[in-house]
């Protein structure tokens, strides 16, 4: 009997014992092609030697030194690496152990920034419905997934949500993409006016929506208008790139493709690629300077911030992405996978949309393609797909159609950047069988 409280205690999980490139091998010797990088984490697969060696070398030198006493070489080098490549204006980094902590940090830095400026009345964050920003209470408060929030609602911060930019479901037939983007971005302005702009701290959004919607990029112009509104009303723009950052969409930062820079940017999963637990919050010079020039201290901290071994692992991951031109590979394999998905599912009666960027792709399942009617959420089609994919030896990341009852079930694909052409075919093959079997099961 297991002594672990698993996230789904009624499910019996296989035991993962080894990794080989993009495959995970269980205790029975069965191989699973990791087409989702777990949850868009394992961008280098599971046995990348130079990263393992870098971690071992750091463990031999110095595993950890508390940041209340010391800085350390790997965290300084990793910060330098990220800031050299970051969107304009981001000048400092705060390293954490994952994505939720990174978002908590961003929220608190944002609040402290205005506190230092004497704008202590600012207290609200605006974020989007159907969003996920982590499971800690602050991150959950800004998240817009009713299912995840329900139990904790009374102990969350009040939330102010606007619509996501979700063209497949929300754009009207008569509306151009640009007009739709403007319309939903302008919901931010309306919410600011409703709350009183000088009570708001910032707007939080995922650059490309991952787990809740399944790889949904914004339409062209949406984020430009969002940035404009943030500047006009003097609020901060916080981009959550925990899932979409670190090359997943084909550029190191997903917002590089939006031609805008946020005031705070969080990243995590692809930063350490699963070799070490690590997240980061990138901070604009203006926020940093205001805090340092004001009270002089950030009222925040965790035991494992700036962890030397985690940073050494992440630095090796990031150097690998660059040395091996893996962003080009993301573009190339992403194009191949998109084409293969379109060929296999493009006319499928139950696949309504195929979308995404780079190796961050999503399929949305529908009962009826013409009306976009989702499957009944009670059928839990996504859970069938996950189960059947695992039977096939494929890891994918399906999500439920329970969010506001407005989205269909979806499958998120986020394979490692090192996958080969034949593995692209293997993904589509196995996914095809898993989807067909699941559709039969729910009918
Ligand atoms: N933000 C986004 C967009 C995520 O997808 C996730 C995790 O899936 C998080 C935040 C939370 O990250 P973590 O699970 O590392 O705390």
UniProtKB/TrEMBL annotation:
Gene3D superfamilies: Aspartate Aminotransferase, domain 1, Type I PLP-dependent aspartate aminotransferase-like (Major domain). One of its GO terms (molecular function) is transaminase activity. CDD domains: OAT_like. The keyword Magnesium does not apply. Its cofactor is pyridoxal 5'-phosphate. The keyword Ribonucleoprotein does not apply. It comes from the Bacteria. Keywords: Aminotransferase, Pyridoxal phosphate, Transferase. SUPFAM superfamilies: PLP-dependent transferases. InterPro entries: Aminotrans_3, Aminotrans_3_PPA_site, PyrdxlP-dep_Trfase, PyrdxlP-dep_Trfase_major, PyrdxlP-dep_Trfase_small. Belongs to the class-III pyridoxal-phosphate-dependent aminotransferase family. This is Aspartate aminotransferase family protein.
């Amino acid at each position: 009997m297991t002594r672990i409280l698993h996230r789904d205690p009624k499910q019996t999980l296989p035991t993962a014992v080894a990794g080989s490139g993009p495959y995970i091998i269980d205790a029975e010797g069965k191989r699973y092609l990791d087409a989702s990088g777990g949850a868009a984490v394992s961008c280098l697969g599971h046995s990348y030697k130079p990263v393992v060696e870098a971690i071992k070398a750091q463990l031999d030198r110095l595993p950890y030194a508390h940041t209340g006493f010391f800085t350390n070489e790997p965290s300084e080098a990793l910060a330098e690496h990220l800031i050299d490549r970051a969107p304009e204006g981001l000048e400092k980094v705060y390293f954490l152990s994952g994505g939720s902590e990174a978002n908590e940090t961003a929220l608190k830095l944002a609040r402290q920034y205005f506190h230092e400026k004497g704008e202590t009345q600012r207290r609200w964050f605006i974020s989007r419905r159907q969003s996920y920003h982590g499971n800690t209470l602050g991150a959950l408060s800004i998240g817009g997934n009713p299912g995840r929030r329900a139990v904790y609602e009374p102990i969350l911060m009040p939330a102010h949500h606007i619509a996501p930019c979700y063209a497949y479901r929300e754009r009207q037939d008569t509306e151009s993409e640009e007009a739709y983007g403007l319309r939903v971005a302008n919901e931010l302005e309306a919410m600011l006016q409703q709350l009183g702009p000088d009570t708001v701290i910032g707007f939080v959004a995922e650059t490309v929506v991952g787990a809740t919607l399944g790889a949904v990029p914004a339409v062209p112009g949406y984020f430009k208008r969002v940035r404009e509104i943030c500047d006009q009303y003097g609020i901060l723009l916080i981009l959550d790139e925990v899932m979409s950052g670190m090359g997943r969409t084909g550029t190191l930062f997903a917002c590089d493709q939006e031609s805008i820079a946020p005031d705070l940017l969080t990243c995590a999963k692809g930063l350490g690629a699963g070799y070490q637990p690590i997240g980061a919050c990138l901070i604009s010079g203006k926020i940093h300077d205001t805090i340092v020039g004001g009270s002089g201290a950030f009222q925040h901290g965790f035991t494992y911030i700036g962890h030397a071994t985690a940073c050494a692992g992440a630095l090796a991951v990031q150097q690998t992405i660059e040395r091996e031109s893996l962003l080009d590979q993301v573009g190339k394999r992403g194009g191949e996978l998109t084409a293969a998905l379109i060929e296999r599912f493009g006319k499928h009666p139950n696949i309504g949309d195929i979308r995404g960027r780079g190796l961050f792709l999503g399929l949305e399942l529908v009962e009826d393609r013409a009306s976009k009617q989702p499957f009944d959420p009670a059928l839990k089609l996504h859970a069938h797909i996950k189960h059947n994919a695992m039977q096939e030896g494929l890891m994918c990341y399906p999500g439920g159609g329970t969010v506001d009852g407005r989205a269909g079930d979806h499958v998120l694909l986020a394979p490692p950047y090192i996958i080969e052409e034949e593995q692209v075919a293997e993904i589509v093959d196995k996914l095809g069988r898993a989807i067909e079997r699941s559709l039969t099961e729910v009918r």
